[in-house]
Every structure is written in C-alpha cells, then in structure tokens.
Amino acid sequence: MIRDNILRIEANVASVCKRLGRDPHEVTLLGATKYSEISEIKQAIDAGLKHIGENKVQDAKVKFTDLGEAAGQVTKHMIGHLQTNKVKLALELFDVIQSVDSLKLVKEIETQAAKLNGNVDIFLEVNVSGEEQKFGFLPSDVMPAVEILEGLPHTHLKGLMTMAPLTEDATVIRQCFRDLRNLRDQMGGQLLLSMGMTHDFEIALEEGSNMLRIGRAIFKSE
C-alpha cells in the first residue's frame, strides 16, 4: 500500500511538472512521519523514500532509534516547532532543521553547532499568511535574518518553508505559496522552497515548490 501510494504521488508530481515544463527530478518528496508506525516508515524507505520529517524531538529520538540501520538511509528533517532547550538534541538527531522560526532559535542553533564542531542546514519558516497561531518569521523579517545568517560559520541557509492556511479556498492557498516564491526570488532565487502537503501539493508545485512534505497520502490508505 505504501509503495503504491509513493508511486501514485510520484506520478502526480511528474504529470504536473510535465504540464509546467518543470523537471520532476528537481522536486524532493519528504515523508512526514508524525502519525506513522515504524513498520510504515520502513516500508516507505524500502520503496525508495529518501527524506523523512518529524515534528517532535522526543518522538524522533525514539523512532530513529527503532528504525535502526534504515535511519541511515534517509535524510532526516525537523519540521515541527523547535524549542531552544531542545536544539542540542535536535542537532544530534536531524540532518536538516526546516522549522527555524526566530532569531533566538538561529542563535541557539549556531551556538550548539559550534559546540558540536559541526555544520547544520536550515530552512527559515515564514508565516506568509500572518496567522497569529502560527510560528515563523514575518516576510518583512526574513532579509534581516538572512543578513545575520551570512555571518554564521556553522549554520547554513538552504531554503524557506511555509504552511498554507487550512482552507478549501484554493485562491488563498495559491497566494500563500506565490508570496513565498516571490520572496525567495527577491533574494536571488537560489533557495529551496519547502511548501505543499497532502491536500495542496499540486498547487504548491504550480507555484514553484521543490520540496513536498507529504504524510497522509503516503502512509494512510484512502
């Protein structure tokens, strides 16, 4: 079932990309494993999934341990809100931190990465829609954060991440993704865009996403 789900998503991505004149190989499929069992994650990895994302540090610690050797076959992304007091453990567990939502967190990541004598790739989470309940930089605060990041030796900015509002209004969703793409383009257009989940990834692709965070469509039968 999971292998079939992945093949179905990959076919959808290829179809959308063909229509848009995009190369589907430039799109990374990330399996969001928040609600998934270890056996399901292993099935996804066996089916060729190369990236997984977890929302909580403590859950990741358990899951990545239980995955055993399979954990070493994938790039592991932190995609949920990260508290500063859990940064050290997060850097030990994850390869990429996508949910960097404040300068305070940026500075703590740099501090802990320096202590570990390592480097960490991050995405800035941007609250494009301006919803009060969401974490993330406001669009106007992204460039000042980028200027600070340029001076940090251990923390490397790889992309921008956002979540569209939970709505059935495709116009609102599309505008959110378009605004993030426009922000990225204003910054030179080199950063990755992590946007699009099970219910809206086709819109995200149409607006330039090159990393999709898919949970339900991979791990749950419809």
Give a written overview of the molecule.
44% of the residues lie in helices and 17% in strands. The protein is α/β, with parallel strands linked by helices and 222 residues long. The mean pLDDT is 96. The protein is globular, with a radius of gyration of 17 Å. It has an eight-stranded parallel beta sheet. β4, α5 (103-115) and β5 form a beta-alpha-beta unit. It has one domain: TIM Barrel.
Observed structural traits:
222 residues; alpha/beta; TIM Barrel; 8-stranded parallel sheet; 9 helices; 44% helix
List the strand order in the largest sheet: 7-6-5-4-3-2-1-8
From the alpha-carbon coordinates, what is the Rg to the nearest angstrom? 17 Å
Number of strands: 8
Number of discrete helical segments: 9
CATH superfamily: Alanine racemase
The CATH class turns out to be Alpha Beta
From N to C, what is the helix and strand string? HEHEHEHEHEHEHEHEH
Which stretches of 5+ consecutive residues score pLDDT under 50?
none
Number of domains: 1
Mean pLDDT: 96
Termini gap: 10 Å
Short description:
This protein has a single domain (2-219), classed as TIM Barrel, CATH 3.20.20.10. Helices cover 44% and strands 17% of the residues.
